[in-house]
Amino acid sequence: MTDADGDPVVLAVDDEERVTEAYSLWLPDEYTVLTAVDGEEALAMMDSSVDVVLLDREMPNMRGDEALKRMRAEGYDCRVAMVTGVEPDVDIIEMGFDTYLTKPVTGEDLREVVEDLLSRATFDSRSQRFFALVEKQSTLETELSRGELDENEEYQELTREVEKLREELDETFESMGAEGVEASYRDL
Amino acid sequence: MDASDHSSADGGEAAVNAGDDTDYDHMIYGEDFFETLVENGSDAIITIDESSTILYTNQSVERVFGYEPGELIGSDLTKVMPDRLQQAHYNALGEYVESGDRTMNWNDIEIPGQHKDGHEVHLSVTFEEHPYEDRRVFSGIIRDISERIERERRLERKNEQLEKFASIVSHDLRDPLNAAQARLSLAKAHGEGDAEYLEEVEEIHERMGALIDDVLTLTKEGRSIGATEHLALEPVARDAWRTAGTDAATLEVDDPNHVDADPERMRTVFENLFGNAVRHAGEDVYVRVGELPDGNGFFVADDGPGIPAEKREDVFEYGYTDSEDGTGFGLNIVKSIADAHGWTVEITDSEEGGARFEFRAPALE
Fold first, then answer.
1. 3-state DSSP call for residue B301?
2. Measuring CA to CA, which residue among B196, B179, B181 is closest to residue A58?
3. CA distances from B157 to A88, B123, B163, B164 (A)
4. Contact A22/B183, CB-based, under 8 Å?
5. How many CB atoms lie within 10 A of CB B139?
6. Which of A25, A85, A87 sits opposite B185 (nearest CB)?
7. Has this prediction a pTM greater than 0.80?
8. Which residue, B109, B127, B54, B120, is CA-closest to B84?
9. Which pLDDT tens digit goes with each residue over A31-58?
10. DSSP label at B315?
11. ipTM summary value
């Protein structure tokens, strides 16, 4: 995790080089920003120093979905944000990302998301999973109608899992007396 | 419904005077009127007894179920029900006769029936119970709603397509918008060197404009055609070439051949195919328009790289493109216009190894 100086490492992947160029510009100077133009190149550049991946979905030579699957399969558990023009649908439930950003994104959007993801790196894996699921839940709730959600078994399953994790985490935090942390994830 | 209205009537006067004594009561006399109304109304009516035996049907059952009244009277009602519903029907009827509890709504329920020839018909049925002589009988007023259901399904499919279309269009606008935004940021940050970025922004904006034009063509015009004319292809093709061709490219149109088409839409077809050829085969593309060997249509061929067999289905889909500056809607527009004319479009290899689009229809000459 992070580079030799302890500064964050971000891997930005988009088939538009100007886009990743802009991401580098938008992110704070002390971050190391690596760039790749497709899924294949992203996999080749991936290593354990990467903290956050910004991943486009529609790319030639391996789509973002596939690249993400392979990163996870290779054991990389860094935080991943999908940054894409594709409207999210229930198929995102199965994907191993932490957050979903719909293009067009501004510099401010991007900085906030990356900072948020970096701060999550300090949580344990259960909390991280909780955050990721809550993000998916709210992404779908924004995108799909109530009726579509009610009919969707995968969404129902997701909701049940979120509730279960929420209860477990509540118990953990109560026993720790860590009200601040509890409040922070309730705000999500 | 109050049971006494007409079922207990045994004379003309009694039948029409069931309501309040107003002038209207005297405008119609005799049973003939009611008989005609019931027999020939657009809804089928079937009356059964407590054991599900059909006592009466009107003539309209034939239109809905294909049986004449004589074929049904005396049979069990399940004769006009799909097998899977028969047990439920006996249970519901038995329970109701026993306890008076209705296990379902009796008004306008949608339920499938079975036609004499075996196919299922969508029905809307309203049930009534009324005494007849000293028996309890049940009548169903039955309307065939198959057409409505079919219309609803078509609408649903159309909505799904629209939703898919909207999400592709929004993706295809979000992406360039994001790219333009990125370049503006870079231009601002780079001061002196910003001209290059700004030119790119300009190009992106042009592409977005083209996409919007294509989407409008597709949604407003693509699926319908105006009056068709017996058109000579050459002038239309030459006209489209002036817009879509390039100085270095060559268009050859074989001997005059004709097609029955809407001239405006035909021009759009050529423009999109020519634009496509220039994009994929290069500025110096050679394009040939000619008649199919069997005389049953026309083709547009180029000498570019061609379209691999496995992609030939996909290229007609919304938003499909391999090209940086294509909108992905051009060939979809071509297909829509061909469909609207009743033509089929097939992609094959041209003699030069490029792409060849063949348009075929019985109506073509």
1. strand
2. B179
3. 21, 21, 10, 11
4. yes
5. 22
6. A25
7. no
8. B120
9. 999 999 999 999 999 999 999 999 998 8
10. G
11. 0.72
Q: Which two tokens stand for residue B296?
A: 């049953």
- Residue that the structure tokens 């028996």 belong to: B135
Q: Does B186 touch chain A (CB under 8 A)?
A: yes
* B-chain residues near A151 (CB < 8 A): none
B203 vs A: CB within 8 A: no
Q: Which of B252, B241, B269 is nearest to B336 (CA)?
A: B269
Instruction: Check if the beta carbon of residue B16 is closer than 8 Å to that of residue B28.
Output: yes
How does B141-173 read in b/e, with b if 16+ C-beta sit within 10 Å?
A: bbbbbbeebeeeeeeeeeeeeeeebebbbbbbb
Contacts for A100-105: CB closer than 8 Å, 24+ residues apart: A100/A135, A100/A136, A100/A139, A102/B174, A103/B174, A103/B175, A103/B177, A103/B178, A104/B174, A104/B177, A104/B178, A104/B180, A104/B181, A105/B178, A105/B181
pLDDT (tens digit, 9 = 90+) per residue, B158-203?
888 777 778 777 877 888 899 999 999 889 888 777 788 888 899 8
- Closest partner CB to B182 (pick from A21, A85, A87): A21
Give the contacts of B134 (CB within 8 A, at least 6 positions apart): none
